[in-house]
Design brief:
The complex is a heterodimer of chains A (115) and B (109). By secondary structure, chain A is mainly beta. Chain A has no helices and eleven strands. In chain A, the strands form two sheets. In chain A, strands 2, 4, 5, 6, 9, 10 and 11 form a seven-stranded mixed β-sheet that branches. Chain A has a four-stranded antiparallel β-sheet with strand order 1-3-8-7, with no helix packed on it. In chain A, strand 5 and strand 6 form a beta hairpin. Chain A is globular. Classes of the chains: A mainly beta (115), B mainly beta (109). Chains A and B meet through loops of A and strand 5 and strand 10 of B.
Protein backbone atom coordinates (compact mmCIF):
# COMPACT_ATOMS: atom_id res chain seq x y z
CA UNK A 1 0.00 0.00 0.00
CA UNK A 2 1.37 3.39 -1.03
CA UNK A 3 -1.02 5.32 1.26
CA UNK A 4 -1.43 8.89 0.00
CA UNK A 5 0.61 9.93 -3.02
CA UNK A 6 1.05 13.42 -4.44
CA UNK A 7 2.49 14.74 -7.68
CA UNK A 8 4.57 16.70 -8.38
CA UNK A 9 6.99 16.93 -5.45
CA UNK A 10 8.30 20.33 -6.50
CA UNK A 11 7.01 23.01 -8.86
CA UNK A 12 8.03 26.53 -9.82
CA UNK A 13 5.46 28.76 -11.49
CA UNK A 14 5.40 32.30 -12.78
CA UNK A 15 2.68 34.65 -11.58
CA UNK A 16 -0.49 34.07 -13.57
CA UNK A 17 0.31 30.50 -14.62
CA UNK A 18 -2.05 27.67 -13.78
CA UNK A 19 -1.40 24.16 -12.54
CA UNK A 20 -3.07 21.15 -10.96
CA UNK A 21 -1.75 19.23 -7.97
CA UNK A 22 -2.70 15.58 -8.01
CA UNK A 23 -3.49 13.38 -5.02
CA UNK A 24 -4.47 9.72 -4.80
CA UNK A 25 -5.08 7.33 -1.90
CA UNK A 26 -5.34 3.54 -1.89
CA UNK A 27 -6.88 3.07 1.59
CA UNK A 28 -10.50 3.16 0.39
CA UNK A 29 -11.06 6.30 2.44
CA UNK A 30 -14.19 8.35 1.96
CA UNK A 31 -12.84 11.77 2.91
CA UNK A 32 -9.98 13.74 1.39
CA UNK A 33 -8.42 17.11 2.18
CA UNK A 34 -6.04 19.74 0.84
CA UNK A 35 -3.92 21.81 3.24
CA UNK A 36 -1.24 24.40 2.89
CA UNK A 37 1.64 24.75 5.35
CA UNK A 38 3.45 28.04 5.76
CA UNK A 39 6.39 28.83 8.09
CA UNK A 40 5.29 29.61 11.65
CA UNK A 41 1.69 28.61 10.99
CA UNK A 42 -0.31 25.48 11.47
CA UNK A 43 -1.67 23.51 8.57
CA UNK A 44 -4.61 25.37 7.07
CA UNK A 45 -7.46 23.63 5.30
CA UNK A 46 -8.09 24.78 1.73
CA UNK A 47 -10.85 22.41 0.60
CA UNK A 48 -12.14 19.04 1.61
CA UNK A 49 -14.32 16.30 0.18
CA UNK A 50 -16.33 14.46 2.80
CA UNK A 51 -17.32 11.77 0.33
CA UNK A 52 -17.15 11.05 -3.37
CA UNK A 53 -19.19 13.61 -5.26
CA UNK A 54 -19.00 16.38 -2.64
CA UNK A 55 -16.54 19.20 -2.01
CA UNK A 56 -16.55 22.04 0.52
CA UNK A 57 -14.50 25.11 1.27
CA UNK A 58 -12.12 25.15 4.17
CA UNK A 59 -10.42 28.02 5.94
CA UNK A 60 -8.46 29.45 2.97
CA UNK A 61 -10.20 28.53 -0.34
CA UNK A 62 -9.65 31.75 -2.31
CA UNK A 63 -7.61 31.23 -5.47
CA UNK A 64 -8.12 27.45 -5.52
CA UNK A 65 -10.51 24.95 -7.01
CA UNK A 66 -10.80 21.21 -6.42
CA UNK A 67 -12.17 18.15 -8.14
CA UNK A 68 -13.01 14.83 -6.52
CA UNK A 69 -12.43 12.76 -9.62
CA UNK A 70 -13.43 9.45 -8.01
CA UNK A 71 -13.10 7.86 -4.58
CA UNK A 72 -9.31 7.60 -4.92
CA UNK A 73 -8.36 10.94 -6.45
CA UNK A 74 -8.70 14.56 -5.32
CA UNK A 75 -7.00 17.33 -7.29
CA UNK A 76 -6.26 20.96 -6.43
CA UNK A 77 -6.10 23.58 -9.16
CA UNK A 78 -4.54 27.03 -9.10
CA UNK A 79 -6.09 28.96 -11.98
CA UNK A 80 -3.84 32.04 -11.82
CA UNK A 81 -0.96 31.56 -9.43
CA UNK A 82 0.13 34.40 -7.14
CA UNK A 83 3.29 34.73 -5.01
CA UNK A 84 1.09 34.46 -1.89
CA UNK A 85 0.38 30.87 -2.93
CA UNK A 86 4.02 29.89 -2.44
CA UNK A 87 3.71 27.14 0.14
CA UNK A 88 3.93 23.44 0.83
CA UNK A 89 0.69 21.66 -0.07
CA UNK A 90 -0.41 18.48 1.66
CA UNK A 91 -3.16 16.11 0.68
CA UNK A 92 -4.71 13.90 3.36
CA UNK A 93 -7.40 11.26 3.60
CA UNK A 94 -9.49 9.72 6.36
CA UNK A 95 -12.03 6.96 6.70
CA UNK A 96 -14.75 9.46 7.58
CA UNK A 97 -15.12 13.22 7.96
CA UNK A 98 -16.17 13.23 11.61
CA UNK A 99 -14.81 11.58 14.76
CA UNK A 100 -14.08 8.89 15.74
CA UNK A 101 -12.99 7.60 12.32
CA UNK A 102 -11.42 10.79 11.03
CA UNK A 103 -7.72 10.15 11.66
CA UNK A 104 -6.02 11.79 8.71
CA UNK A 105 -3.17 10.23 6.77
CA UNK A 106 -0.97 12.66 4.89
CA UNK A 107 0.89 12.56 1.62
CA UNK A 108 4.53 13.68 1.26
CA UNK A 109 3.65 17.19 0.11
CA UNK A 110 4.22 19.40 -2.93
CA UNK A 111 6.57 22.34 -2.55
CA UNK A 112 5.29 25.16 -4.78
CA UNK A 113 7.12 28.40 -5.52
CA UNK A 114 5.41 31.21 -7.42
CA UNK A 115 7.75 33.86 -8.80
CA UNK B 1 -5.67 34.01 17.36
CA UNK B 2 -4.81 30.37 16.83
CA UNK B 3 -6.91 28.05 18.93
CA UNK B 4 -3.91 25.75 19.44
CA UNK B 5 -0.67 27.27 20.70
CA UNK B 6 2.56 25.30 21.01
CA UNK B 7 5.76 26.06 22.87
CA UNK B 8 8.62 26.32 22.47
CA UNK B 9 8.81 27.15 18.75
CA UNK B 10 12.13 25.33 18.56
CA UNK B 11 14.28 23.25 20.85
CA UNK B 12 17.80 21.80 20.67
CA UNK B 13 18.81 18.95 22.97
CA UNK B 14 21.63 16.45 23.19
CA UNK B 15 21.12 12.84 22.25
CA UNK B 16 19.99 10.77 25.22
CA UNK B 17 18.34 13.67 27.03
CA UNK B 18 14.62 13.98 27.76
CA UNK B 19 12.40 16.86 26.68
CA UNK B 20 8.81 18.06 27.02
CA UNK B 21 6.80 19.94 24.43
CA UNK B 22 3.74 21.98 25.38
CA UNK B 23 0.36 22.54 23.75
CA UNK B 24 -2.30 24.97 25.03
CA UNK B 25 -5.68 25.07 23.36
CA UNK B 26 -8.97 26.91 23.57
CA UNK B 27 -11.03 24.48 21.47
CA UNK B 28 -13.90 23.21 23.60
CA UNK B 29 -15.51 20.76 23.51
CA UNK B 30 -13.44 18.39 21.46
CA UNK B 31 -13.42 14.72 20.56
CA UNK B 32 -9.73 13.96 20.70
CA UNK B 33 -6.25 15.45 20.75
CA UNK B 34 -3.42 14.09 18.64
CA UNK B 35 0.29 14.60 18.44
CA UNK B 36 1.83 14.27 14.99
CA UNK B 37 5.50 13.93 14.06
CA UNK B 38 6.61 15.58 10.82
CA UNK B 39 10.05 14.75 9.46
CA UNK B 40 11.66 17.30 7.19
CA UNK B 41 10.22 17.07 3.69
CA UNK B 42 7.53 14.57 4.72
CA UNK B 43 3.89 14.67 5.72
CA UNK B 44 2.78 14.47 9.38
CA UNK B 45 2.37 11.04 10.95
CA UNK B 46 0.18 10.40 13.99
CA UNK B 47 2.05 9.52 17.22
CA UNK B 48 -0.68 9.46 19.87
CA UNK B 49 -4.38 10.12 20.25
CA UNK B 50 -6.24 10.89 23.46
CA UNK B 51 -9.94 11.34 23.97
CA UNK B 52 -11.36 14.01 26.25
CA UNK B 53 -11.51 11.56 29.18
CA UNK B 54 -7.96 10.21 28.90
CA UNK B 55 -5.04 11.88 30.62
CA UNK B 56 -2.05 9.93 29.36
CA UNK B 57 -1.06 7.84 26.36
CA UNK B 58 2.29 6.29 25.51
CA UNK B 59 3.88 5.18 22.25
CA UNK B 60 7.34 3.80 22.96
CA UNK B 61 9.53 6.67 24.14
CA UNK B 62 6.75 9.20 23.52
CA UNK B 63 4.25 9.95 26.30
CA UNK B 64 1.44 12.44 25.84
CA UNK B 65 -0.57 13.90 28.71
CA UNK B 66 -3.81 15.82 28.71
CA UNK B 67 -5.28 18.11 31.37
CA UNK B 68 -8.76 19.02 30.16
CA UNK B 69 -9.32 21.38 33.11
CA UNK B 70 -6.40 23.64 32.21
CA UNK B 71 -6.69 22.89 28.47
CA UNK B 72 -3.08 21.78 28.23
CA UNK B 73 -1.31 18.82 26.68
CA UNK B 74 2.32 17.86 26.69
CA UNK B 75 4.49 15.43 24.75
CA UNK B 76 7.40 13.97 26.68
CA UNK B 77 10.25 12.31 24.78
CA UNK B 78 12.50 10.02 26.78
CA UNK B 79 16.11 9.18 25.94
CA UNK B 80 16.08 11.16 22.72
CA UNK B 81 17.61 9.81 19.53
CA UNK B 82 18.90 11.58 16.44
CA UNK B 83 15.85 10.27 14.57
CA UNK B 84 13.61 12.27 16.90
CA UNK B 85 14.71 15.43 15.08
CA UNK B 86 11.45 16.63 13.53
CA UNK B 87 8.54 18.98 14.02
CA UNK B 88 5.88 17.90 16.49
CA UNK B 89 2.37 19.14 15.88
CA UNK B 90 -0.51 19.22 18.36
CA UNK B 91 -3.95 18.81 16.77
CA UNK B 92 -7.25 19.29 18.58
CA UNK B 93 -10.22 17.69 16.89
CA UNK B 94 -13.76 18.96 17.29
CA UNK B 95 -15.52 18.54 13.96
CA UNK B 96 -12.47 20.02 12.28
CA UNK B 97 -8.80 19.40 12.86
CA UNK B 98 -7.23 22.43 14.62
CA UNK B 99 -3.47 22.44 14.03
CA UNK B 100 -0.81 24.06 16.15
CA UNK B 101 2.19 25.61 14.40
CA UNK B 102 4.48 22.92 15.77
CA UNK B 103 7.70 22.68 17.77
CA UNK B 104 10.88 22.08 15.79
CA UNK B 105 13.07 19.64 17.75
CA UNK B 106 16.74 19.13 16.90
CA UNK B 107 18.65 16.32 18.61
CA UNK B 108 22.42 16.72 18.43
CA UNK B 109 25.02 13.98 18.99
Amino acid sequence: NAGVTQTPKFQVLKTGQSMTLQCAQDMNHNSMYWYRQDPGMGLRLIYYSASEGTTDKGEVPNGYNVSRLNKREFSLRLESAAPSQTSVYFCASSEARLPPRNEQFFGPGTRLTVL
Amino acid sequence: KNQVEQSPQSLIILEGKNCTLQCNYTVSPFSNLRWYKQDTGRGPVSLTIMTFSENTKSNGRYTATLDADTKQSSLHITASQLSDSASYICVVNDNDMRFGAGTRLTVKP
